[in-house]
Structure formats: structure tokens, C-alpha cells
Design goal:
It contains 15 helices and 17 strands. By secondary structure, it is α/β, with parallel strands linked by helices. The chain folds into 2 domains: 277 residues, Mur-like, catalytic domain (UDP-N-acetylmuramoyl-L-alanine:D-glutamate ligase), CATH 3.40.1190.10; 133 residues, Alpha-Beta Complex (Protein-Tyrosine Phosphatase, Chain A), CATH 3.90.190. Strand 3 and strand 4 form a beta hairpin.
């Protein structure tokens, strides 16, 4: 049977309309399709990462370190910022359109009458592509939660839980205990798990104990200390590593890096990693949209892209802004999705912003800019303007920006993505 479509964009447009809901947590449908595609699962080690914040950064550090030691790495993450292909990386490179389209065609043929969501199609495509490559390690980032996320059809050899906070409460539960239980769903009986959150929910501890899954906790089984020019990671038993600061900025990245090193240590017998590769990998790891600072030649200001969108991540962004010196004003372009705890998130950063430009995003899930404006005003902001689009906000902000100012773009992956796309469009000044 011929493929349904020939281009990646046609496939993606169709996938957005295929399933009656954007999100449907559960493993039964996607597991059935995967088994039709592949009888077996991965023969190489798999590391699965879940968490409210930090899983994307942790995955990129893992990828960078393993690649620095010459391993062939498959990495799956979401969402993307500019290109869908960002979600599927093979040996450090984005998967090509043709490879993803071929995977979509195989999935479409195998699924028959089984309906799949956009995310489930993408997850199956990544798994199918990785299964067809001779890889040494596979890294899988959970999209939402963990227990019922599509990624969880694969058994992890090591599960990594990063910072656990309040986000997606409609789906995952109202507090850290409920959310922790959902994220701990990626653990497997007898297989080790790493938690880089120093305040581990009791639900995670109970779940690990019930499975007989050895749990390695930051501040307990492993820890780190800051030193003058570097930092020292060590296990409780005494094994240590002196390492350079991660290229990804922020104190929270040391916690992520500590969890990454613990996961690597747990797989040393299968995937030996040298200290030199750990150092190189930490120094080389980059991830767009995580306090990404740009200084365009045609802009008077520096631009900071950060996908922070929940209270914990916005608090981390606020701390980085506080620690980073600048001469002028700090101006914000803010767009958020509806349903986020925007009041708590913005309260963390209000004191760091001089001028606010709140925007509507190009998605039905966008929060209304008028609501964001009212929240910001309630936090005693003096200069706030609302805009119907990111493009309108960028035009307005450039007209008033002076040398030494900085422009912080945050609130959602959508916000950062739209500003990035605008900046790269022909004839744009940013």
C-alpha cells in the first residue's frame, strides 16, 4: 500500500487531526502498535528521564558525555522549538525528514484501526528509527508524567527523576506526592533509579521500595560540593569525580549534572565512560531555550531565551537574571499557556522585570494577554503592555530598547519558538 503522504509537514498536519483528543494517557494502544513493528526491544541500555524541570537538560548532558566517549547515541525529547526533527537525534544529529516520513508510513500501516495521538506517533517513530540503527545507548525523555506516558512502553535500565514540582496538575494530580507517583512510574523492578531532587516525595520512595528498585538520591547516596573553579561529585561510598562547571547555566544545572553522573556510574560495567569524556561532555552540552543569551548585531539589546513556564523554572530564571549583570533595563516578552499557575510563577520574577510585553500565542491553548496583563499589574508592575502577537510585541519592544538593555523571552516553548522564528525571518532586525 502506498504511503499516505510524502512530506513531513503533511504527515504532521494529518496527525494533529487523527485522534479525538490532543492528549490521551495510557500505554495499551501504543504498545500494541510497537509490538506489530518490532518483536523485541532494545539490546542496548536505555535511560528514561522524567521530571517537572530539568529532564531536557539532563538528557542533553547524557548525550554529550556518551558521545564524547565515542558511543552511538539515540536521543528522543519533546517538545521542539523550531523543527520537529529536533525531537529525534541520532549520534548528535537531527533525524532527516525522509527517515521520519518512512517511520510514519510503517507506523500507519502497522496500526490499522488503532487511533494514535500526535505525540504517540512521534514516540513510535523515534523508537522505530532507533531500533533500526546500531546504537550503544538510547535516551528517552518523558513527555507528560511517566506512568502512562507513551515513552513508558520501553523498560528503562536506569530511570532518572529530575526536579519534581507542580505542573500539569489537571493530568497528574494536585500535589508533589501525586505527581511524584506518576513520574515514578518509569521505574522497573530490580533496576536502579536516580533522583536529582533533594526533596524526594514519599510516593517515590514507597514505589521504589515496592518494586525493589535501588534508589540513588541526591544528598543521600550521592552528592556534590562546589569548589573554587570546579565541583566535586561523589557517592556515599566515597567514589569521586572533580568536574568542570556545566556549560548549561544555573545552580540547578549542578543538581541535574550530579544525577547524570550517577546514572552514568550505574552503567559503567556496560558503557564505561572516562573522566575525560565526563569533563568534555559537560563543557560541550548545549540546549536551546535554557537561559540562551544572544547578542544580535542589529539589536541594541541582548536577548535571553528561556522556556521557563512553571513556578520552579521561573524562579530559577529569576535567580539567573539577578546573578547576571547588565547596564540597562530588563524587558520581558511573556506568553503562557492557559491552565498554568501563572500567578505563582510570575511572582518569582516580578522584581527582576522593568517593562512587560505580554502576548497571545499562536495556539488555541494560549492564555489571553489581557489576563497576563492583569496578573502582572497585580504584582505592582508599572509598565505593562499587551499585544495580540509575538511579532507586534517585538516591534514595540525594539522601538524603545536602548544599548545595555536585555530582553527576556519566556513563559512557554511556544513563546520562545515564535520569537526565534521571527528573528530568523528575512528582513527582521532581531
Amino acid at each position: 500500500m502506498p504511503a499516505r503522504f510524502n512530506t513531513l509537514q503533511d504527515w504532521l498536519g494529518w496527525q494533529e487531526t487523527l485522534h479525538p483528543t490532543d492528549i490521551e494517557l495510557g500505554l495499551e494502544r501504543i504498545a500494541r502498535v510497537f509490538k506489530r513493528l518490532h518483536r523485541d526491544t532494545f539490546s542496548c541500555p536505555v535511560i528514561t528521564l522524567a521530571g517537572t524541570n530539568g529532564k531536557g537538560s539532563s538528557l542533553r548532558m547524557l548525550e554529550s558525555i556518551y558521545r564524547a566517549d565515542g558511543y552511538r547515541v539515540g536521543a528522543y525529547s519533546s517538545p521542539h522549538l523550531q523543527r520537529y526533527n529536533e525531537r529525534i537525534r541520532l549520534e548528535g544529529q537531527e533525524a532527516q525528514d525522509a527517515e521520519i516520513v518512512a517511520a510514519f508510513a510503517r507506523i500507519d500501516a502497522a496500526r490499522e484501526d488503532i487511533s494514535l495521538t500526535y505525540f504517540e506517533f512521534g514516540t513510535l517513530a523515534a523508537l522505530d528509527i532507533f531500533m533500526r540503527r546500531q546504537l550503544d545507548v538510547v535516551l528517552l525523555e518523558v513527555g507528560l508524567g511517566g506512568r502512562l506516558d507513551a515513552v513508558n512502553i520501553i523498560d528503562a535500565d536506569v530511570a532518572v527523576l529530575t526536579a519534581i514540582g507542580l505542573d500539569h496538575t489537571d493530568w497528574l494530580g494536585p500535589d508533589r506526592e501525586a505527581i511524584g507517583f506518576e513520574k515514578a512510574g518509569i521505574l522497573r523492578p530490580g533496576r536502579p533509579a536516580v533522583c536529582s531532587d533533594v526533596d524526594v516525595p514519599q510516593s517515590v520512595l514507597r514505589h521504589a521500595a515496592g518494586l525493589g528498585s535501588p534508589l540513588y538520591r541526591l544528598g543521600k547516596e550521592f552528592d556534590f560540593e562546589m569548589q573554587a573553579q570546579d565541583w566535586r561529585w561523589h557517592e556515599q561510598a566515597g567514589t569521586g569525580r572533580v568536574l568542570p562547571p556545566p556549560a548549561l547555566r544555573g545552580s540547578h544545572q549542578y543538581r541535574n549534572a550530579a544525577g547524570v553522573i550517577m546514572a552514568i556510574e550505574l552503567l559503567q560495567t556496560r558503557l564505561p565512560v572516562s573522566r575525560a569524556a565526563m569533563r568534555t561532555g559537560l563543557l560541550d552540552a548545549r540546549l536551546a531555550g535554557r537561559f540562551q543569551v544572544l547578542n544580535p548585531a542589529d539589536s541594541a539589546a541582548s536577548w535571553i531565551y528561556d522556556v521557563a513556564h512553571n513556578p520552579d523554572s521561573v524562579q530559577q530564571l529569576a535567580q539567573l537574571l539577578k546573578e547576571t549583570g547588565h547596564r540597562g533595563r530588563t524587558r520581558a516578552i511573556l506568553g503562557m499557556l492557559a491552565g498554568k499557575d501563572s500567578v505563582a510563577a510570575l511572582a518569582h520574577i516580578a522584581s527582576q522585570i522593568d517593562d512587560w510585553h505580554v502576548v497571545g500565542l499562536n495556539t488555541p491553548r494560549s492564555e489571553k494577554p489581557e489576563k497576563l496583563r492583569d496578573i502582572v499589574l497585580s504584582l505592582k508592575a508599572r509598565r505593562v503592555s499587551s499585544h495580540g502577537s509575538v511579532a507586534e510585541a517585538c516591534r514595540a519592544i525594539e522601538e524603545s530598547t536602548q544599548a545595555g538593555d536585555r530582553i527576556v523571552v519566556f513563559g512557554s516553548f511556544y513563546t520562545v519558538s515564535e520569537v526565534m522564528a521571527l528573528a530568523q525571518a528575512p528582513g527582521q532586525r532581531i
